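FAQ
Q: What does a multi-component entry look like?
A: The components come first, one per line:
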Amino acid sequence: MTFTMEQPQTTSESEKSGPTQQTSPRADFLKVTNFNFYYGKKQALFDVNIEIPARQVTAFIGPSGCGKSTLLRNFNRMNELINGVRHEGDILLNGRSIYDKKIEVIALRRSIGMVFQKSNPFPKSIYENIVYSLRISGVRNKATLDETVERSLRGAALWEEAKDRLHESALGLSGGQMQRLCIARAIANQPEILLMDEPCSALDPIATAKVEDLIHELKRQFTIIIVTHNMQQATRCSDQTAFFYLGKLIEFDATQQIFSNPGEKQTEDYITGRFG
Amino acid sequence: METTPPEQQEGGIKEFRRRPDLFRGLCWVASVAAVAILAWIIVEITHQAWPAIKEFGFSFVATSRWLPNRETFGVLPFIVGTAVSSLIALLFALPLGLAVAIFLSEDFLPPAVRQVVRFTVEMLAAIPSVVYGLWGIYVVIPLMLKFGPWAVQTFHNTWTTPGMNGAPEVQKGIPILETLFAPPSYGNSMLTASLVLALMILPTITAISRAALVAVPGTLREGAYALGSTRWEAIFGVILPAAAPGVVAATILALGRAMGETMAIAMLIGNSSHLTSSLLAPAGTLASLLANQFGEAEGLQVSSLMFAALLLVILTLFVNIAGEVVLRYTQRQTAGIR
Amino acid sequence: MSTSTIEPPDFLDRAITSGSGARAFWSRFLTCVCISLAFLTLIPLLSIIFLLLKNGLPNLSLSALTELPPAAGMVGGGFGNAIVGTLLMVAIGLVLATPFGILSAIYINEYAPASRLSNTVRFVAKLLTGIPSIICGVFAYAVIVLPKTGWLAWIPSGFSAWAGGFALAILILPTILLTAEQALMSVPHAYREASYGLGATNFQTIWRVVLPDGLPAIMTGIMLAVARAAGETAPLIFTALFSQYWIQSFNEPTASLSVLIYNFSTTFDDHQKAMAWTASLVLVILVTVANISAQVIFRKKQ
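Then the predicted structure of the entire assembly, as tokens:
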């Protein structure tokens, strides 16, 4: 079965997002078709079909081991770092397969930012963390780098806190600041999509609130997919929610709809806390 | 016999542990003895070296004439030899050892293959020094007897070629290289000993560097890949910098080993007390000097050898303390990353 | 679903043309270099093993293991006295070093783990592992070989098995101490608490609970020490010296495998050179057996 979102009324938002984003969001921006995924002999995803719209926040929920992170990590092909994995089916990004032979995986990953469960700043300065992806692609112009650092830190709502200590070690930041630094690092390269794998699970409530506010800001520019264990978080920051269970996509609908009037029994059991 | 269980008191086990007993005294004595041995070694060697220290003083380390039959002892050639052989060994062992450490910590090839390489490096560490010496005599010296004349011919010799108007044009050797590869070339030489030494310290560099690389959290690697790094951009940009203090510690500790390595060097370096700049000439190190001369030494020569031994102890202690300090700093650093 | 949406410029095209091909190629190239270097290290080891077998095996016989060394120009003979000497001096080293090593490991791990003395012991032990082995020989030479005067005159002087064993004891003390500490550290804390909880004294807990559980790992350390001591030449070369004969007393010069290899490797006598290879083969086998048994003991514990 295929879930398709209605074209959402977000025109006013996308207009605000500046001259570089003149395109209108499309509803099947990221399209997964008949996708199966295996770790060795163990199948982790079963025939997943989903269409994720651009410039919205899509939440993946479900109990541990349901495959939500696995699917997320397929979008930038991070799963290929593990030995013995294979997939069937296809993932289309803007109508084009990410498994296209012509696409270098390292280039794909530059177009898709990722934020991890545990913040992982490099043991370098704040500045060097952010310009890392520019440096590896050969950008040397100091002005460009400086500008990127400021834009990214502002984008991640970290500029005011970090502007006076850009050249100090990133390991001196607080947990919440580190995670926002990782978001800044992920958006430095102006990706199209931002993948977030339980970005708040290691943060306290105040830091979590800041990151959630940030997600609201970021969706003007980026298509965001967030994996979360926290159902309140899904209701607070996502536009639509996909529920996974045992490697299958059970239900995908507007967040409002999923949480108020779920179509499937399993979804209802999960969101009412009967298992999880 | 204790009648009330100690846990009933405030402080429990801790309180109980502090009670003195005979066995504890014995263990304490053994611990103090372990510390005292280092002090004893230094004091005893200094004591034995005293006549030479009094006789030569600072000129012992600053002069380069070692003439036992004239009771003239200057140890400079051996200090230089120790430094040069260790540094050349590092020059070869560091890139190679680091490459092996990266190979072992990355998944280029299946674990079984990596296990074979790891086992090999551990075997290299287990082979006795004297066997390396024997191998050097049979394998490395013949190779050097071919390489030496070639190097002299290529880097040092002046030769003539027909110039533009038929007049012979003299060509000089290559600067720096011509002094390092000056004739005559020998089989037993600084270069021979240094190459074998490089092989001997390779396991130290590999083992400690590998531990440092493996300790770099996987999340950093993931982060680098997610930003679109290639594997080697991740290694050079993120993983190696994070492991750098460990690699530095490995290098320093390997340097300490290289400076103290004795038998293979004594068998291969040629044991000359002449100070030369040529790597193809025989030389000597502090350790090889001790190995060669202690057995038949008498009188002031014994004191002088003791003085040389004292210098070697001080040098290696200094290097090892530096290595330990860096290693501790490393462990604190990597704890911070996690 | 609207198909009239204006197609945005395909950002994946930007990705393809960003020159990542060269970067990917460079990465693959470095991988090949790294693999080649790793396999390069196999060559010397294979060469050593090959030569040990090729030059050592032909002379390996019962007589090689049991007879006295051949004089220059003679054929036959062996290095039986050197094997005995090596084993004897390693044994002396173990007897001297093991009690100190284990007792101080017990002190620094069981009695006062955080005390200043314990931290000093750990640091000094690390430094002792870094002291060149020949310095152990120099020290033993100073303490035992050199003639004593005054109240120390009772110590027998001269080159002897004692001196060699003493030098090896200094050499292996830090190995035994540090591995024993690791061994004790790996004993679960719950065992100690259980023992104290049953009213055992400190000594009873250590002797009946901690030591038995840590013993295999301590044995591993001892076997590693044996491997290290057996292969060492530098500490013996001017403490035990060498002897052409069977050992008669601990107070006389004593042969060892490693010194025999050193002596024979530099002669001009072909048969003695061949014997050096055979002795090397035996020594490497001895050291490898000690190392492997250390691993086996350790694995059994896991």
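Q: Is there any commentary attached?
A: Sometimes. For this entry: Chain C touches chain A through 19 residues (CB under 8 Å).
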